[in-house]
Amino acid sequence: MMKQYDNVFIFDHPLIRHKVSILRDKNTGMKEFRELIEEITTLMTYESMRDVETVPVTVQTPLEETTQYRIPEQSVVIVPILRAGLGMVNGIHTLFPTAKVGHIGMYRDEETLEPHEYYCKLPDGIEDKTVFLVDPMLATGGSACDALTALKARGCKKIKLMSIIGVPEGVEKVARMHPDIPVYVSTLDRCLNENGYILPGLGDAGDRLFGTK
User: Fold this and answer.
1) Catalytic: 112?
2) List of the chain residues with pLDDT < 50
3) Is 183 within 8 Å of 47 (Cβ atoms)?
4) Count of other CB atoms within 10 angstroms of residue 58
5) Which of 160, 166, 196, 206 sits a CA distance of 20 to 30 A from 40?
6) What is the CATH number of the domain that holds 75?
């Protein structure tokens, strides 16, 4: 059983479970797989933004003037971990269509399973935004930890890590190394196999999103 961490949030919603079950199916085609990734991401974004800051605005209704609350424009930045993280961007854009997008590229050494950064391009002013770091699979946790370190080194202070499938090994590593970062996972799977793949998992998310290996 995974140790409990205050910064880890595992979703247990029937609609997400339903969509994840279709996502896992090896017979689910690329188009449907991509749409499911986006839909699950949207559902997770809704839940993970419960603590977002809002500002008062004056609105004129057809009957009277009233004070309402809105999330400031362009207060959110999406940073996918390349390449699979790209599949989650539109799911957040559904709720935050003006969010700018940065990119962090990581590759995994097939022998050591250690991540290496090869690309990083972020929007100006990201240090003052709420940053969604997204990657469908939280496996060893190495890429996520390195990406979080890279974002912090560039001044980011409000970061949320969001993955669709995770395993205890990866989730615990991130929670332990970055206790200040909220970690959102829709589903917690059993374990990693000897090659570092999640079981039961859904295969390689990037391959299934883009039809390439």
Assistant:
1) yes
2) none
3) no
4) 8
5) 196
6) 3.40.50.2020
Q: What is the pLDDT of residue 52?
A: 85
d(CA 76, CA 53): 11
Q: Which residues contact 30 (CB under 8 A, 6 or more apart)?
A: 208, 209, 210, 211
Whether 135 is catalytic is no
pLDDT tens, position by position, 29-73: 999 999 999 999 999 999 899 888 899 999 999 999 999 999 988
Residue 180 falls in the annotated catalytic set: no
Q: How many domains does the chain have?
A: 1
- Spot the catalytic one: 70, 112, 176, 180: 112
C-alpha 133/C-alpha 6 separation (Å) is: 19
Residue 78 lies in a domain: yes
On whether the pTM is more than 0.85, the answer is yes
Residues 6+ apart with CB under 8 A from 82: 103, 104, 105, 106, 119
